[in-house]
Write a structure and sequence with these properties.
279 residues, mainly alpha, 3-stranded antiparallel beta sheet, 10 helices, globular
Length: 279
């Protein structure tokens, strides 16, 4: 906290509990800090009514231990960042983070004379982790020529809520519109139809996220839950989407895949192509 909060009215940080209730946290004094895993805990800072400013410095931390999966994503900072600089820093950070894990596996296996079942399983599990890590690294880098026009038109704050509003269904509470993508009579822009729309592949057919969508759907259809799916479900961002999808008893859709990956800009683009209108 950089501002003097001694006599500040408002300005508290509010977090959402697992039961969906909100609670305010005690305001830290000037020079004091608050530790919060902001990428996993929904939170916001209330406006201050008694101060001209509420300035904070935010520092990101990660686990130092090798082998702990880094679930960082950029959904909450893409809308207001200099993407050229952000993406340069992102790829540099992710590759540097990857190197110690690969070296640890190499050191562990380099002198193995005969691979047994445990060795093979360890390599296979590491393959899954590396694949998901590489995919997350690349998919988060949405081209600036897609991000900027959307944020200029809709504002940065809009993208903080589009994913959650899709998962909860709040995005579809307004009167539904006819699907302009397939133009099938009676087809409306809502989750069930968007999952099976016959023309869905018209949206950016060459984008790699389509292969992710097919891969995820294949994993979800398997009777026995695979290590890969279990590993993905360790992330709350993935778990909440899949849990909600299972409760809705419908096919996995491309919007579900975009929500899992936190690609809100692509979600808006796809929904607008289907006929949904945003302010």
């Amino acid at each position: 906290m950089v501002s003097d909060s001694a006599n500040m009215i408002g300005g508290e940080t509010v977090i959402q509990h697992g039961d969906m209730e909100y609670v305010g946290l005690t305001q830290p004094g000037m020079g004091s800090v608050m530790m919060l895993q902001g990428g996993l805990v929904k939170h916001l800072a209330l406006p201050s009514s008694s101060s001209d400013d509420r300035i904070t410095i935010i520092t990101s931390f990660r686990a130092k231990a090798v082998g702990i999966y880094d679930s960082s994503f950029m959904s909450n900072i893409r809308p207001y960042s200099d993407l050229q600089e952000l993406y340069r820093q992102w790829i540099d950070y992710r590759l540097n983070r990857l190197e110690p894990g690969v070296k640890k596996l190499h050191d562990r296996l380099r002198f193995v004379q005969v691979f047994d079942e445990q060795d093979s399983q360890e390599v296979d599990e590491e393959r899954v982790v590396l694949k998901e890590y590489a995919k997350r690294t690349l998919r988060q880098m949405i081209p600036p020529n897609i991000v900027k026009p959307l944020t200029d038109r809709l504002g940065c704050q809009f993208f903080y809520h589009v994913r959650d509003n899709y998962v909860s269904g709040d995005l579809f509470k307004h009167p539904l519109t006819a699907c302009e993508l397939c133009k099938v009579p009676g087809a409306m822009v809502e989750k069930a139809h968007l999952s099976v729309c016959s023309e869905k592949f018209c949206w950016r057919p060459d984008i790699p996220v389509w292969s992710d969508y097919i891969e995820t759907y294949t994993l979800l259809l398997q009777l026995d839950e695979s290590f890969e799916l279990r590993k993905r479900m360790e992330e709350l961002q993935v778990k909440d989407v899949i849990t909600k999808w299972r409760a809705e008893s419908r096919p996995w859709g491309i919007l579900d895949e975009l929500a899992v990956q936190g690609l809100g800009e692509y979600m808006v683009e796809y929904l607008e192509l289907c006929g949904m209108r945003f302010p």
